[in-house]
Amino acid sequence: MFLSWVQIGSYRVWSIRVGSSRVRKIKLFDLFLLFFFGTPRSLCSSRYLSELLAEKKAKNAAIKQREAIEAFQRGRRLDAIEAQIKERQRKLAEDQRNLLQQQAQAKAQNLPYEYYLARKRLHMDHEAQRRQISCVFVLLKRILACVPTLSLAPIEAYPAMR
Prior knowledge:
Blueprint lengths: L1 E7 L2 E8 L2 E6 L1 H10 L8 H101 L6 H4 L6
C-alpha cells in the first residue's frame, strides 16, 4: 500500500494504491487526520481496505459471471443458428434427392416411347432405302428394255425386287 498525489480539477487529492490498482482517493483533510491523530474518519484501517478489496473481488466476480452467462447465451444462439443451417441443408438435400428421383422416373417412363420411336425411324429408313432401290431397278428395267442384248436375270435375283 502506498500513497500518491492526484490532480482532480482544481483539487489535489491523495490516492491509495494496493498492488497496481487505485483503491480510493483521499482528501487532504483525511490525510491530516491520518497523520496527526492516527485514526482517520473513514480510511486506512485494515478492515476498511479488506472491505474495499472484497467489494472489488465481488464486482470482478459478478462481471466474470455476467460474461460467462453472456458467452453461454451466445453459444446457445450459435448452436440454434447452426441447427437451423443443418435443417435447411437437410431439406435442400431431400428436395434435390426427390427431384433426381422424379427425373429418373420420368426418364424410365419415357424410355419405351423413345425405343418405339427409334424402331419406327429405323423401319422408315429401311423402307426409304427399299423404295430408292426399287426406283433404281425400275429405271434399270426401262433401260434394259431399250437394249435387247442385256439380260435381267442377275438383277431380278436381288432380294429387294421380290
